[in-house]
Design a protein that fits this description.
There is one protein chain. The termini are far apart. The protein has 16 helices and no strands. Helix 9 packs antiparallel against helix 10 and helix 15 runs antiparallel to helix 16. The chain is mostly helical. It has 2 domains: 103 residues, no CATH class; 235 residues, no CATH class.
Length: 409
């Protein structure tokens, strides 16, 4: 069994920042406590980890933690969870990383499973519960809009990245598969940024050709949804849907939305309304926001589906640290990979914009009181912009639920 000596250099320097000696059960319980307190999204979660494990207990030097966080922000996946896995490896080797990651995600997973179970047994349509969820859905749209702005501020750092995002949005509206869109976005931006304009033009031509073949073949993977259940999903399909979301989560959990929605709502396994309800519930739990995939998996395939999709979503967050523990910081120095990932991330921003427009249109057609729903959206958006607090998201969801209960019945 591998331990810390396999991964971190030893040192005789007195006072060196390194984890304390912990048993495996103690390590698991340490990160389980983090999971129970993981309210407020990734910023609050990372701040909690930094305060306790870097500033107070000195598990890792502050400068190394900063570099590690920069790497996690480049790679797909929930950064706070990836940090927990990495620090668990630093303490007790790969098994320690697995235990730390499981401990951090377990409270949110259990709570989301319980909420999904209750959701499928509550009377929703035409009841006060349905009105509450309609109000929450309007608030969720506002939360996503604010998230897009926040994500864009960190990703769209120049005119070419803006152009990449806009081109991706236009291609998505035209029904081009997101695989074509993202690969082309990453390659074109990386090539264009290094002055290889001819090769960038070739990639654009190949992307157009691939999209044309997709259209003529009648298998366009558009962002639109049919609403017709094509077939019962297999566990492999749900795992793959979660894995795609986990691999394409750049800059925040909301970037997984278009991919998870495409593979579930797009297949008729759930409705847009149910999808938005899952997003709303994830905003009030102590967990990485990608825990909404657990709800989506439950609605699509029951308990087994929930576990399959959760496993797919979180697998990359475990794998990057477990497989590349001592090489992760080299990612920061890999210029071409950075450029490619920057282009992909910009393309993802464009896809989220299209997705939130689709979700907003769906919500508008389902509400019995458009004015009340618009009011909820406006108030929620104002709160999200004006109130810089980790409580902002749960508060606006509570506002949506309260107003919806009285106005959307």
């Amino acid at each position: 069994m591998a331990h810390i000596g396999d991964f971190a250099p030893t040192s005789s320097v007195i006072g060196e920042a390194r984890p304390p000696e912990l048993s495996y059960p103690a390590l698991f319980l340490r990160f389980l406590r983090f999971g129970m307190m993981a309210f407020g999204g990734p910023v609050a979660q990372i701040a909690m980890i930094r305060r306790e494990l870097v500033d107070e207990e000195r598990w890792i030097p502050s400068d190394r933690f900063n570099k590690l966080l920069a790497v996690m922000q480049v790679l797909p996946g929930p950064e706070a969870h990836e940090l927990c896995v990495h620090l668990g490896i630093r303490a007790k080797g790969r098994l320690g990383g697995v235990l730390a990651g499981l401990g951090f995600m377990l409270p949110g997973l259990v709570l989301m499973l319980a909420l999904a179970w209750a959701y499928t047994r509550l009377p929703i349509q035409g009841t006060v519960f349905g009105a509450i969820f309609l109000g929450v859905q309007a608030a969720v749209i506002a939360v996503i809009v604010r998230a897009i702005h926040r994500i864009g501020e960190h990703i769209l750092l120049g005119p070419w990245l803006w152009a990449t995002a806009i081109a991706a949005a236009v291609a998505s509206l035209a029904g081009v598969s997101f695989w074509i869109v993202l690969l082309a976005a990453g390659a074109v931006y990386a090539l264009g940024s290094t002055g290889r304009y001819a090769l960038a033009a070739v990639v654009v031509a190949l992307a157009i050709g691939a999209a044309t073949l997709t259209w003529t073949g009648g298998t366009a993977l558009a962002g639109t949804t049919t609403g017709v259940r094509e077939s019962a999903p297999t566990m492999a399909a749900l795992f793959w849907a979660g894995l795609k979301g986990g691999l394409l989560t750049f800059g925040g959990a909301y970037t997984a939305i278009p991919f998870i929605r495409h593979d579930t709502v797009g297949q008729g396994w759930m409705t847009d309304g149910q999808f938005l309800d899952g997003l709303g519930l994830s905003g009030i739990l102590p967990a990485p926001l990608v825990i909404f995939a657990t709800f989506v998996g439950w609605i699509s395939g029951g308990l087994a589906g929930a576990l399959a999709m959760t496993a797919g979503m979180f697998l990359p967050a475990f794998a990057f640290s477990l497989l590349f523990y001592d090489r992760l910081e080299a990612v920061v120095e890999h210029k071409r990979l950075q450029l490619f990932l920057a282009g992909v991330a910009a393309g993802v921003v464009g896809l989220i914009v299209v997705t939130v427009i689709d979700l907003a249109q769906t919500t508008a057609t389902r509400t019995p009181n458009p004015i009340a729903s618009l009011l909820i959206f406006g108030v929620a958006l104002a709160v999200m912009y004006r109130w810089k607090s980790k409580l902002a998201t749960p508060v606006v969801l509570a506002i949506g639920a309260a107003v919806g209960a009285f106005t959307l019945t």
